[in-house]
Specification:
heterodimer; A: alpha/beta; five-stranded parallel sheet; 19 helices; B: mainly alpha; 21 helices; globular
Chain lengths: ~475, ~425
């Protein structure tokens, strides 16, 4: 198994138009209703005053054609009865549209839940019908202010800054990691790498392998979370032909494949207890048995394991074997979260911008101040992996060598400064704050009400009632 | 709890199929896992399901089930009453109606059972129209189930009866059905002859919608045969027919645009192709939403992006299709999505992509859908193994695919798989799985 390899160059996308200037008219596409009548009838009267160039699309197919054919700054659409689905549909439809247009959704009586979901999706605003001039003017000014972005040169990532192991970053937290890696690399000790998703556990494992005594041997990575439980054992230990339905041929398992090298078991906490016992036996006795085979096969591998879970907690709950933990955690390396790595963020942006610039045949040399601010304000749940994904997406759509806020996903732009609170005082009401917090906790639990109720410290029935009340 | 763990506790009983569907559709991805190293390989089996939430969602599902069963029972009682009143035609209509209800919720084999009962009754009648209607319905469901020869037999009988009764609409529909049966078996000249016959009959009747549908089929046929210019003409005429219906044929329009996208892709015009697919999605959205069609169009868009080397965008589109397929219980769509995700990983030489094929095969077995779905998964899995190592497995999967295609009489696919098999014998794949 390998990590996901580098992708091939894409075919060149059509040359996008140059970025808009602050003095350009804001191009608005209004969708739905009749031009000159219906809920958006006042739009035409306000357009000239607000410096807006307005176009009307009577329905979705026409809107799709217009979006593909030109550069738009703003799309205004009236949500139908299935407002949530409409919202998701629009966010998808606008992804990658020329100019990165922002969406303003209009609804008869937008619920707080709708507003919160829209915010999470990066919708510029949800406004109530009938549309008010002031609300539109506010949105237009926010779009216009985005045109004032200043380009900052991206740092070049010199070899020293990358550290000894081709890991990008020079924050104190990463320097500690490098020191530990240097100490452990020369031995054959089993290593346990801990860290949140996307912090680079496999990169660290690979680097330890490359600088270890078994570097001439293979590095074999197994993602225990990805492989269906019923297949994981045969994936690790191999199987004999006919051992089970689907065993169409003899298969050499990962332990054997990694012979003389390193076996990296990623997401090890996702393994069942019975399989943990088999791993323990393999580690202790240095031999394995293929599924459906009676022969013991000696294996010589260095084992590196990783997880984003709290293994001590898993042990306490009886979901992870303590004896296996102590076998694996001979040396433990804890990787920092991206938000704790300070200016490494900028170095990583520079590194990925160059990497993807080469892949998509673009020269990306700068990052706008607003884009940098958005990147700094983001929570980065997916850490470096998420950042890499964001920069790759931006590299696909960037046109002139500067990554701007418009090239960043809507989820990041949702936190753009200047998004007004809904109350007139600028401070949220108690109900708004409660709704926001509930939405955040639900998002954290993946929508699981029981778990969310536990975190919030309320009964699940109370939570269900509040969700209904706020339209969540 | 993971879906794969939850499914292990669910016996494979027909009565529990709706619960299985509910389990899948209520599963949610764990946001933290999505960004983990296993995130790129997540399938529905790795999603989370919460028993409490499942319990809460059961009410509406049970209520819909009760309504469905009540409608079926009602249709049966109506058939009995009509039969008692010597209205056998009405009884056939009621039984066919029950079949259509089953078809609407994706229970194709059950629909077929209703149609067969209706057909047995219709064959005893002097009036042949109910028999034609039943034959057309059963022919349609046979094709959806991959029973091409049987479907063609029913359509043939419908055609003979329609012509004898001067039932032009029936003759047109039967001819189109025969064309579709030939098309599915890659019998291009036969398909063309049937579509052309349907076209001649329709042009006389000025039925714009039927005309549009036939032009569309001819366009698809021309594309498959490589006559892209002719395909473009047919698709243009199909669009004109549907446009004349003032938006009443939004889903037909979406299907034509979907075909237009595939044609543009074949012409090497990825920009217009993507535009056509996106407009097709907008037409689907405009009408009563058809999630199955939505998933199909998104998959075609994803294939276009995949072939253009735009892998990140291709994967995003596949994931959107996956989300839609899961929430709307489009299990067949999921099979195609996972097959394509596996193919994408194969292009990236990422061996862990095998998890998608395994998930697709598991879904095929759980679904008991048309065998052609499983054949296509094995075909793609075999090609994946050729790229990512495992020549023995590659051969085994390709042989299994060929076997299924052969049993369905799809010779063109058999030849394609056999060519891949020859290739696997000639060129030993690098590395062993």
């Amino acid at each position: 198994m390998t990590t996901r390899p580098a992708q091939q160059p894409a075919t060149s996308p059509p040359a996008p138009p140059s970025p808009r200037s602050v003095t350009d008219a804001v191009r608005v596409l209004a969708v739905g209703g009749e031009s000159g009548s219906g809920p958006l009838q006042s739009l035409r009267q306000w357009a000239a005053d607000l410096g807006v160039e307005l176009e009307w699309a009577a329905d979705l197919p026409r809107a799709t054609r217009l979006l593909a054919g030109g550069r738009w700054d703003l799309v205004l659409t009236v949500l139908g009865e299935r407002s949530d689905e409409d919202l998701t549909w629009w966010v998808d439809a606008l992804r990658g549209a020329p100019g990165g247009p922002r969406l303003i959704a209009l609804a008869d009586r937008p619920s707080m839940g709708l507003a919160l979901r829209a915010e999470k999706l990066g919708v510029l605003d949800v406004l109530a019908l009938p549309l008010k001039r002031e609300a539109l003017a506010n949105a237009v000014s926010r779009v216009r202010s985005a045109a004032t972005e200043v380009a900052l040169p991206l740092p070049s990532v010199d070899p020293e800054a990358q550290g000894h192991y081709a890991l990008v970053g020079q924050s104190p937290a990463m320097l500690d990691v490098y020191k530990l890696m240097a100490r452990v690399a020369g031995s054959t000790a089993t290593v346990l790498i801990l860290g949140e998703s996307g912090t680079g556990k496999e990169v660290v494992a690979r680097t330890i392998h490359q600088h270890g005594p078994g570097s001439s041997g293979p590095f074999v990575a197994v993602n225990c979370a990805a492989i269906p439980e019923n297949l994981l054992e045969s994936e690790l230990f191999g199987h004999e032909k006919g051992a089970f339905t689907g065993a169409v041929a003899r298969k050499i398992g990962r332990f054997e494949q990694a012979g003389g090298g390193t076996l990296f078991l990623d997401e090890i906490a996702d393994m069942s207890l019975s399989l943990q016992a088999k791993i323990l036996r393999a580690v202790q006795e240095r031999e394995i048995e293929r599924v459906g085979g009676g022969e013991s096969i000696p294996v010589t591998v260095r084992l590196i394991a990783a997880t984003n879970r709290d293994l001590q907690n898993a042990i306490a709950q009886g979901r992870f074997r303590e004896d296996l933990y102590y076998r694996l955690a001979v040396v433990t390396i804890q990787l920092p979260r991206l938000v704790d790595r300070g200016d490494d963020l900028v170095l990583l942006v520079g590194h990925f911008a160059r990497q993807f610039g080469e892949r998509y045949r673009k020269k990306i040399e700068a990052l706008s101040d607003r884009a940098l601010e958005l990147l700094r304000n983001h929570q980065w749940v997916g850490n470096v992996r998420e950042l890499r994904n964001v920069i790759e997406r931006a590299a696909i759509v960037v046109s002139d060598g500067t990554l701007r806020s418009e090239h960043l996903p809507d989820e990041l732009r949702a936190h753009e400064p200047g998004v007004p609170e809904r109350s007139t005082s600028g401070l949220p009401t108690l109900a708004e704050a409660e709704a926001r917090h509930i939405a955040r906790v639900l998002s954290h639990t993946g929508g699981q009400i029981g778990a969310a109720a536990d975190i919030l410290g309320i009964h699940r029935n109370t939570l269900t009632r509040k969700m209904k009340e706020y339209g969540l | 709890m993971r879906v794969e763990q939850a499914l292990r506790l669910l016996p494979n009983l027909e009565a529990l199929l709706p619960l299985r569907g509910l389990l899948l559709s209520s599963a949610r991805p764990d946001e933290r896992v999505q960004w983990g190293s296993g995130g790129p390989y997540l399938t529905v089996g790795k999603r989370d399901v919460e028993p409490g939430e499942l319990a809460r969602s059961m009410g509406p599902v049970l209520s819909a089930l009760a309504q469905h069963i009540a409608a079926l029972y009602g249709a049966y009682v109506e058939a009995l009453e009509r039969q008692e009143r010597n209205d056998a035609s009405g009884a056939v209509g009621a039984l066919v109606g029950a079949g259509r209800l089953e078809e609407k919720v994706g229970r194709l084999s059950q629909a077929q059972a209703w149609y067969e009962v209706a057909l047995a009754l219709a064959e005893t009648l002097q009036d042949r129209r109910p028999e034609v209607e039943t034959l057309l319905a059963i022919g349609h469901v046979c094709l959806a189930l991959g029973q091409y020869a049987e479907g063609a037999r029913h359509y043939q009988r419908a055609l003979v009866l329609s012509e004898a009764e001067f039932n032009q609409a029936g003759a047109v529909d039967a001819s189109v059905g025969l064309g579709n049966a030939a098309f599915e078996r890659a019998e291009w000249p036969g398909a063309r002859a049937w579509y052309s016959r349907a076209l001649r009959l329709t042009e006389a009747g000025k039925d714009r919608r039927r005309l549009g549908l036939i032009e569309h089929r001819l366009g698809v046929l021309d594309r498959r045969q490589g006559d892209l210019a002719a395909a473009g003409d047919h698709l243009r005429r199909a669009r004109e027919c549907f446009e004349a219906l003032n938006g009443e044929a939004a889903l037909d329009m979406a299907r034509v645009l979907d075909s237009q996208g595939q044609l543009d892709a074949a012409l090497g015009r990825p920009g217009p192709a993507a535009g056509a697919f996106r407009e097709a999605l907008a037409w689907v959205r405009r009408d009563q939403h058809d999630p199955g069609l939505d998933v199909t169009i998104r998959l075609h868009l994803a294939e276009l992006l995949l072939e253009s080397g735009r892998w990140l965008e291709a994967e995003e589109e596949m994931r959107r299709a996956e989300q839609l397929a899961i929430t709307s219980n489009q299990t067949r769509g999921l099979v195609r999505i996972y097959t394509l995700l596996g193919t994408l990983r194969g292009r990236q030489s990422d061996e862990t992509g095998f998890v998608f094929f395994e998930q697709a095969i598991a879904l095929c077995r759980a679904l008991e859908g048309p065998p052609i779905d499983e054949a296509r998964v094995y075909q793609a899995y075999g090609l994946f193994r050729q790229i990512c190592g495992g020549p023995d497995e590659a051969r085994a999967y390709l042989e299994r695919a060929a076997e299924i295609f052969r049993s369905l009489g799809v010779d063109e696919e058999v030849e394609r798989v056999e060519a891949a098999l020859r290739n696997s014998r000639d060129v030993p794949a690098a590395g062993a799985g």
